[in-house]
């Protein structure tokens, strides 16, 4: 009889361990999906940042050219 109780305890322990492993696998999958979403978002922001830097440089060049023209007009 006590051997049967020991087997039941062992079986319950294995079931609990199996459930924990399943939870860890599910959590791992969820984290992998979240990680991929964050990587996509990071790539998007990096691309957007590069575009903003490029547009800022274009605006800066335009302003510098405009200032140079104004200076040349003022010098005449």
Q: What does this entry look like structurally?
A:
The chain is an all-alpha fold. Helices cover 97% and strands 0% of the residues. The protein has one domain (1-76).
Rg measurement, Å: 33 Å
* Succession of helices and strands: H
Quote the beta fraction: under 5%
Mean pLDDT: 93
Overall spatial form: rod-shaped
Task: Summarize the biggest pleated sheet.
Answer: none
Class based on secondary structure composition and strand pairing:
mainly alpha
How many DSSP E strands?
0
CA distance, first residue to last residue: 111 Å
Q: Which blocks of ≥5 consecutive residues have pLDDT under 50?
A: none
Number of domains: 1
Compose a concise summary of this entry:
This protein has 76 residues and is mainly alpha-helical. It is 97% helix and 0% strand.
List descriptors:
rod-shaped, single chain
What secondary-structure arrangement, pairings included, does this model have?
Blueprint: H1 2-75
């Amino acid at each position: 009889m006590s051997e049967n109780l020991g087997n039941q305890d062992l079986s319950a322990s294995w079931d609990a361990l199996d459930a924990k492993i399943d939870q860890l696998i599910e959590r791992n999958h969820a984290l992998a999906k979240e990680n991929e979403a964050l990587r996509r978002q990071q790539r998007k922001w990096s691309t957007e940042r590069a575009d903003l830097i490029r547009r800022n440089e274009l605006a800066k060049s335009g302003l510098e050219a405009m200032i140079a023209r104004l200076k040349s007009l003022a010098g005449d």
